[in-house]
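S., here's the first fold you wanted:
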Amino acid sequence: MKSISLLLLSTFTALADFDWQTQSWPSQPATGLQALDQKPTERKLIIEGNKTPFAKDGKYHRVRVPVAALSKSGTLIVASEGRLGANPDHPPGTDRDWDHVLISRSTDMGKTWTTSIIDDGKNKLDVGALSICSDKKSGKLFVLAYAANQGGKVLIYQSSDDGLTWTQHHQSGTTFTGGPLQQAFRMRPTNGIQLSPLHGPSADIILPGVIGYSKNRMMGLLRYQNAQDAWTLTTTFENVTDPQLAGEMTVAELDGPQAGKLYFITRPESKIHGKMKSHLTHTLGTKPAPPEAWSDSAFSFKRCNQNLARYSFKEFHNKSRLIFSSTKNLTGKRLGGHISVSYNNGHTWKSRAIVSDQEQFGYSQILPLPDGTIAVIYEGQNAAGQATTALYFKRASMAWITQGADAGLVK
């Protein structure tokens, strides 16, 4: 096990477990983090690679594609790909390199991190991309991987002890297929969401992904049914007239007048819509409409995922907020990163840069933390300046994002 310890300039108080009925941590600590309205914390290294083969020195060629979730107890869990630089059929560190599946944990909201390998695949595993899901009602955690070099099998890892140990779920290896051609469902790097009490008592998990390739590309949803302890492919968005709109997806639950609906932002597979993204709203149990090109999107197009999350529900916290993270894509490169907030279920957004326009900001995840601050986990350069080799953590307040207009979840 590799261990990394970092100092974060704030205090932390132990929390009670997440309360499912109120959608909150009941003992949110009053940490005085309103000072963060001036600027976010300095970036904190989670883990990095060094562009040498893992077999040479036990360090990864690159560490990429983080997905993140909060456990029921408030632990930050980051799953990522430790790329070995060892596949003789492909250049080191590429998407078709061999990988270890890694878990990084922080029990103190980013102050310290530990990283462990949960699957080494006998050093010949190509996971493609990972997804992560947190069941804050039962405490279970799931990491799902599309095993590209194992016939498209879906590897499902689960933990019942806050991410300390992992086993394979009883459905691990199942190939989920859908669409007219019954092609395989592939996770793209994102986090699943757990349906709130606004959707009823089931507390099921929804995980978006892609079915098929090229002209047959579609969007789909896996659903984890809590009562049955089973994953099923439940919905296929048959957007065959415009398959390029099906790319890396991210989802959040809506509230207010649209309570019970899901909102998706997708990164189209190619730049057919210029700098546009696409989005759609969907009600579970109904026939999905195809995604629509987002002509007035505030977010740049780039072959790089983004992340959407619910910060608060109006029904539970008096104000409705969605948050979003994405590269700014300056000069066609993954430079600069912004985080954004919407108060109207994604129609309009207020954005602010979380890293400078000279800093690399690749695949990212955004999470509301128990004390109301916001965590961003993203790909960046290692200490030697080598691209897409390291994962970083930063923390900001809602007050900083909105320049003092919104204090966020504070007592």
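And the second, which I think is the more interesting of the pair:
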Amino acid sequence: MQENKELVPAHDPVMIQQGDTYYMFCTGPGIAKWSSKNTKQWKREKPVFSQAPEWAVKAVPGFKNNHTWAPDISSQNGHYYLYYSISAFGKNTSCIGVAQPEQWRTIASRPRNAQLADSMPGDAAIEEPFIFKKGAYYYLFTSFDYCCRGPQSTYKMVVGRAKELIRPYVDKAGVGLEQGGGTLVMEGNKD
């Protein structure tokens, strides 16, 4: 077993403990995965996906598993759910999926306007899923559109809720997040 005592390259990390082992999942090819017994020394594991999930290739033409974004993990009744974002790198096509040993499905997506050029800000970008439970509902928060572009940034956070962990998540108007829905929570100042 090779242990890494150096800094671990981790973009958008999320961690969970199972028994005496910690697992960290990060943005990277197939979702980067690391394990540790003490959170100081980390071992690189095989990525979550050795090849792109079939649904992802169909939903996002050009997705090649080279960059699977911003994972989040949770457990419910002994089952683990790993949420993640996919897109064709540099394109305005994105979806959010969930991985579970016996289940694969889309839980949030942004329909893309095929008439717009890929450089158009805000058309179909989606990332950073985060889910938590409050009362009888699970809430899925996700980010839409573009960040980090100065005055051209259109980044915003939206939410949907569901009575079951894996779907369907709907916004206030009853539109499913997998159909591009989402209730606005916060957005940048347009001035």
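Why I say that: The chain is about 5% helix and 40% strand. Residues 121 and 152 are 7 Å apart (CA to CA).

Talk tomorrow,
H.
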